[in-house]
Amino acid sequence: MKKLKIGIFSLTCCEGCEFAILDLGEQLFKLTEKIDIVNFRLLEENKYPELEKHDIAFVEGSPITKENGKMLKEIREKSKILIALGNCAAMGGIHQIKNWGDKEKINKSVYKYWKQVENPAIPRLDEVVKVDFTIPGCPIVGEEFLEIMLQLINGRLLREKTNPVCHECQTQGFPCLLQQDCVCLGPIICGGCGAICLKGGQACWGCRGRIKNSKGSEEAIANLINHLTKNFPKEKIEWIKEFFGIKKEL
Ligand code: SF4
Ligand code: SF4
Ligand code: SF4
Predict the structure, then answer these.
(1) Cα Dmax for the chain
(2) How do residues 187-224 score in pLDDT, each as one tens digit?
(3) Digit-coded pLDDT (tens) for 66-105
(4) Pocket flag, ligand 3, residue 197 (CB < 6 Å)
């Protein structure tokens, strides 16, 4: 069987999602029996190898700079399937918080010569190019990347997860923080992370994005928003919605 040509690319970000792939170690090595990784900047000696044609391109990070935007469009042209890798690519990442603030005020408070500083809005990948699928999370879950790779290799249809974080939280018996006066977005967020934040006693702020295409998802969102509005200050709810960019999806 012909090996799939894969590219893994990084735009502006912390590169944590690429590290989650590297952390797969032996499992990643084993995968290379079935795929050809022709572009993976973290592993390249040459920082800017020539862009080849790909079957699948995975892109992490945000297309913030002009160079990022140009590179993203070129990747799209040369790839049959483009997959957004992680919260930055899919939802704008933590740095999109500034999209919701007064940019001039922020610039003035940070830079002396603030007028000379470019401060563009932070776009999601799908606001610049067509995105075929998303692997969510901040960072992504390495095993989920592996699972999706195997589905791609076997030509299976990719499906988004439809169970919310609450499902994974409750099946592990964690105490419900929403009932203890915390803003937790778990009821409307795509599961798959093993409710890792709840395991550490931190509420879910939605890095994996909202559940979609499942029965009752719209109703769950309306119910949660209603509950939060009645029980928490508006500023607190808005701040948490802005953190990973879920605000744009609600
Ligand atoms: S999604 Fe999170 S871990 Fe991945 S690149 Fe962005 S900030 Fe880093
Ligand atoms: S703590 Fe959050 S994720 Fe867990 S059950 Fe409560 S609302 Fe759901
Ligand atoms: S619990 Fe929520 S914020 Fe934490 S990793 Fe999972 S989806 Fe992201």
Answers:
(1) 59
(2) 999 999 999 999 999 999 999 999 987 777 888 899 99
(3) 999 999 999 999 999 999 999 999 999 999 999 998 888 8
(4) yes
57 is written with which tokens? 């391109």
Residues with a CB atom less than 6 Å from ligand 2? 165-166, 169-170, 174, 176-178, 184, 186-187, 195, 198, 203-204
Give whole-number Cα distances, 239 to 51, 94, 232, 233, 244, in Å: 39, 11, 12, 10, 10
Q: Is the pLDDT reported for residue 228 higher than 90?
A: yes
Query: Which residues are CB-contacts of 143 (< 8 A; sequence separation ≥ 6)?
Result: 24
Q: Are the C-beta atoms of residues 52 and 5 closer than 8 Å to each other?
A: yes
Q: Per-residue confidence at 176, pLDDT binned at 50, 70, 90?
A: very high
Please check the confidence at residue 41 and state whether its pLDDT lies above 90.
no
Neighbours of 136 (CB within 10 A): 26
175 prior amide bond cis, ω within 30: no
**CATH numbers and ranges of domains, the chain:** 4-153 (3.40.50.700), 165-249 (no CATH)
The phi and psi torsions of 231 (rounded to 5 degrees) equal: -115, -10
